[in-house]
Amino acid sequence: MKKQLIFDVATDTQIVIYAVDSKIITKEIRVGKKDHAAYMIPLIDKVLKENNLTIKQIDQIIVGSGPGSYTGIRVAVMTAKMLSYTNQIDLYEISSLNLLTSGYEGIKTPMIDARNNNYFSASYDDEKVILKEALYAIDDLSKYQNHIVINSDTIKVNLENAQKFYQKVLDVHAFTPKYLRVTEAERNHDTTTNNK
């Protein structure tokens, strides 16, 4: 029996799950704005305590690695790396797009708002990738079916479906979030550097 800790912070919805062999035992969901870092460890502690567990009893950590909120996915990935490395727990990643809509069957096109009519998106037909994960203008997604704009009302997690997409992280130190675009600060820095 594999005890699993799963979490994602790609949107304004922070989700922490404890599962055994991909069967969800406890799920905590918290909606917030740019304050997920302060609640990440307390939420994990709460889920563990509810199940009379310590982090050392967890066999696998699965983290939504983005795309999505720059700060959110950074918080999730850094927390996963820290817990995995310090406690020697196997670490797996999964696309946040896939994890947060894994409870939907058939063709789906999950979307995370990236502002200015742009979305982080992909399209899946069960295990088959129809459209690869990237940043798209809304018009580019019109030909794909079953759009799901991910928010606290539309998140639907089924770990038995999601587990098909887990990827083991072989080098915890080198593991980074899937940002899929540079931040505004990086763009401004590049513009300043090029103008010198």
From TrEMBL:
<feature type="domain" description="Gcp-like">
    <location>
        <begin position="33"/>
        <end position="143"/>
    </location>
</feature>
<dbReference type="InterPro" id="IPR000905">
    <property type="entry name" value="Gcp-like_dom"/>
</dbReference>
<dbReference type="GO" id="GO:0008233">
    <property type="term" value="F:peptidase activity"/>
</dbReference>
<dbReference type="InterPro" id="IPR043129">
    <property type="entry name" value="ATPase_NBD"/>
</dbReference>
<protein>
    <submittedName>
        <fullName>Putative glycoprotease, peptidase M22 family</fullName>
    </submittedName>
</protein>
<dbReference type="GO" id="GO:0006508">
    <property type="term" value="P:proteolysis"/>
</dbReference>
<dbReference type="GO" id="GO:0002949">
    <property type="term" value="P:tRNA threonylcarbamoyladenosine modification"/>
</dbReference>
<dbReference type="Pfam" id="PF00814">
    <property type="entry name" value="TsaD"/>
</dbReference>
<keyword id="KW-0645">Protease</keyword>
<dbReference type="InterPro" id="IPR022496">
    <property type="entry name" value="T6A_TsaB"/>
</dbReference>
<keyword id="KW-0378">Hydrolase</keyword>
